[in-house]
Amino acid sequence: MAKYYDGTKILSLKDLDGERPEIYLVQTNRTGGKTTYFSRLLVNRFKKNGDKFCLLYRFSYELSDVSTKFFKDINGLFFPEDEMTHEMFCKGKFARLFLNGEECGYAIAMNDADMVKKYSHFFSDVQSMFFDEFQSETNHYCYDELNKFQSIHTSIARGQGEQSRYVPVYMCSNSVTILNPYYTQFKIASRLRPDTKFLRGHGWVLEAGFIKSAQEAAKKSGFNRAFEGSSYQQFATESKYLNDNSAFVEKMSGNFIYWATLLYGGKAFSVKEMRETGLVYIDTSVDTTCKLTISLSDTDFRINSVMVQRNHALMTTLRTFFRAGRVRFKNLEAKECFIAGIGIY
To answer: What percent of the chain has pLDDT over 90?
Structure first.
C-alpha cells in the first residue's frame, strides 16, 4: 500500500459519457499527500513541456505570499535546486508565478471572477487549474460560488483561436461535508457510499481515498491522542465527514408534526418532526393541504408554492438540524431532495 497519495488512477479515468473529464475531485483523510501530488504534477509539467497552470483560491487575501505557500513543501522534497517567486499585477488582483525567473503560471481569487473575465487574455496560455480545499471546514464559501467558478473556467478556457479549450481542473479536499456546493451540483451525495472509491459523472470524476499511513501517523501524535474520539479526530484520521452523520436513510414511524412540502425533480417530499425524538424526517408521503410548499428549482415551481432562498427560515433550521445529526430520510430520493434544498450557497 502506498504511503502517500498517488493520482495515477483518477487521471486515467473516463467520465460517465466515456469522454475525457475536465473536473477531477479528490478527497481523502488529512495529510494524505494529495496537495503535494498535484502541486508536483503541475511543476513537472511546466519543467517538461512548458505547460502553465493557474492556482485558484476563494478570496483575494489568500494570494498573499502565494509562491511560498504553493512551493515551500514540494521545494524541499522534489525541487531543491529550483526557486519560485511571484509578482502581483492588475492592481494586486492577480499574481504571476515564476520558476527560476521564467513565468510558469498564475494565481487568482474566485471572488474576482468579473476581473478574470475582463482580463481573460492574460490567462489564454493556462493548460490546467488547481483548486485546493474545495470543501470548507467552516462553511466559508464565496457568495454565488458555483457561478463564479464556472465564469472563471469559461474565461480561462477561451482564447488561442478556440472558443473553449480543454483546461482540466484538479480539486482536492478533506472529507468535510456532503453538503458542499460541488457535491450538491453534481448530485454526488445520493450516490456516495462508505465503500465508494471512484465515482464518475458527466464531465467529472471523483476519488474518495483513504491513506492508511496518514491515519497511523496521526494516531501516534500525542496531541491527537489527547483528543481521541472527538468528531474532528475521526474526520482527520478515519476519513469520516466532519460535518455529517452517516446514519441518513432509514424508515421511521410514529407521531409527526408536519412542517412543509418540498418540490424537487417533479416529485413532492414532506418535512416532518417526530414528536418522540425531535428528529426531522424527509418522507415521500405528503399532506396536500399544507400551506407551506417550497419549490427547489424553477422547473418544480407551481401555483401556491414559493421559490427556495438560501436564508429562508426553514432552510436555515434544516441545515442546523442536519449538522447536529438530527435528520433522517425515507430513501435516497428524499436525501437528494433535502441536500439540493439546504445545499444552496
So the answer is: 54
Has residue 240 been placed in a domain? no
Q: Are 228 and 260 in contact (CB under 8 A)?
A: no
Cα 182 from Cα 188, distance rounded (Å): 8
Task: Report the number of distinct structural domains present in the chain.
Answer: 2
Q: Which amino acid is at 273?
A: E
Taking each helix axis as running N to C, give the angle between helix 66-78 and helix 34-49, from 0 to 180 degrees, rounded to the nearest 10.
Answer: 90
Percent of residues in the chain assigned helix, strand, coil, to nearest 5: 35, 25, 40
Q: Are 71 and 134 within 8 A, CB to CB?
A: no
Distance between CA 194 and CA 207 in Å, rounded?
12
- Core vs surface per residue 325-342: b (16+ CB within 10 A) or e: ebbbbbbebbbbbbbbbb
- Which one, of 49, 38, 54, 67, lies nearest residue 156 by Cα? 54
List the one residue out of 341, 327, 186 whose CA is nearest residue 243.
327
Length of the chain: 345
Domain end residue (candidates: 176, 195, 210):
210
pLDDT digits (tens, 9 = 90+) for 100-139: 999 999 999 999 999 999 999 999 999 999 999 999 888 7
Range of the domain at 72: 14-210
Residue 216 lies in a domain: no
Burial classification of residue 304, based on how many CB atoms lie within 10 Å of its CB (0-12 exposed, 13-18 middle, 19 or more buried): exposed
Q: How large is the average pLDDT for residues 188-217?
A: 77
For residue 132, list its beta bridge partners. 172
83 plus 181 within the same structural domain: yes
